[in-house]
Design brief:
Length: 368
């Protein structure tokens, strides 16, 4: 159930930052190959931080007040789902395997980019015409029957383009604004999170806020294949507190069971989660920050785990006080992921206001 939904909206995203978001979303950043997106993100955030670094696998970190002993992380993940070339037939067709949770059912008729050492090779996911399926039992798309066509007639022609087994494949679809209300695009899960934490850094700088702790703005890699980037960077930073942002499901569209997925609505505010990895006392601080700043918010129960980088941070380094702020999203892991503009503003505001409530050396233990 939504809370504080009658409050007047405060716009945070500027025209300039929206241009960055569009560029950032349109740039491919597949799992394991995130570096071009990370360059864009670092270039955007550099004016708002004191220093930065990138780890061996590409997780990018901007730091404010790096000499402070008490460390707070705000984190999102930078990778998008994609495909790998797995098999090239003698007739020049390409079969694929997943890189992350790619949805085989949306693949037919999609345009894609195959990333090779020679540059981008264009291709399409082919599918038999409806005329040829008439009167027969419909065969649904599966990993065994979806294939790419890059206009070649032989395996040798495909290989001459630079395509080989292991080349990564991303969809072509690009960012747009729908009805002046929603941001739409592929890979909003979760590069919109990277955008939001960068905007928090911008607000801190523009409002001349001095934090009493070190703030580590983390854009992690390889979340889509098991929270791997978060695992690595959590052990490097060794933070005291981590506030993670990711997307969650808007459950108002057809074929979603609210009994299973909860009752969440895009446009009604950020989502705070309840799960074993979410620290109750930090969660209370987030809720207090939302209430004090009249930011609308919603609640979600995540059962045994959140399935986000929250779990990786929480269970690292003998236990890191962690919490999750989620952004409601429609059509996750498709090329038309949708998030509400007001929710984006309010997630940014909630992280910002929560940081201002944190104190150096704050002790979140239940029993002291």
């Amino acid at each position: 159930m939504a809370e504080n939904t009658e409050n007047k909206h405060v716009q945070v995203v500027t025209e300039e930052s929206l241009k960055f978001l569009e560029t950032y979303i349109n740039n491919p950043s597949p799992t394991g190959f995130e570096w071009e997106g990370q360059r864009l993100w670092l270039d955007y955030i550099k004016p708002y931080i004191d220093e930065h670094y990138v780890d061996n696998y590409g997780t990018a970190v901007g730091v404010i007040n790096p000499k402070a002993e008490y460390k707070v992380v705000i984190e999102a993940h930078s990778d998008e789902i994609s495909w790998f070339v797995n098999y090239i037939t003698k007739d020049g067709l390409i079969y694929v395997i997943r890189n992350g949770g790619s949805d085989h059912q949306i693949a037919p008729s999609k345009r894609v980019n195959i990333h090779t050492d020679k540059g981008i090779v264009k291709a399409v996911f082919g599918w038999p015409a409806i005329h040829t399926r008439n009167g027969e039992k419909e065969e649904a798309p599966t990993l065994k029957n979806i294939f790419l066509d890059c206009g070649c007639n032989t395996k040798e022609e495909v290989e001459a383009l630079g395509v080989h087994v292991g080349c990564v494949i991303t969809y072509e679809d690009e960012f747009m604004v729908l009805n002046d209300r929603y941001y739409v695009g592929r890979a909003l899960d979760n590069r919109v999170g990277g955008f939001m934490i960068a905007e928090v850094a911008r607000l801190l700088k523009e409002n001349n806020k001095t934090l009493p702790f070190g703030l580590y703005i983390v854009n992690a890699v390889q979340e889509e294949v098991g929270l791997r980037g978060a695992e690595m960077i959590a052990n490097r930073i060794k933070p005291n507190v981590a506030i993670i942002t990711d997307v969650t499901h808007d459950t108002q569209t057809p074929m979603i069971n609210k009994i299973v997925q909860g009752d969440l609505t895009a446009g009604k505010g950020p989502v705070v989660s309840y799960a074993p990895s979410v620290h109750t006392n930090l969660n209370k601080l987030l809720i207090k920050a939302a209430e004090d700043a009249t930011i609308p918010f919603q609640r979600q129960a995540s059962s045994r785990w959140t399935g986000t980088d929250t779990d990786a941070f929480a269970y690292s380094n003998d236990g890191v006080v962690s919490a999750l702020i989620s952004l409601p999203l429609r059509y996750m892991h498709t090329t038309v992921e949708m998030v509400h503009k007001e929710d984006v503003d309010n997630v940014i505001r909630l992280i910002y206001e929560s940081l201002l409530k944190l104190e150096t050396g704050q002790d979140f233990r239940y029993i002291k």
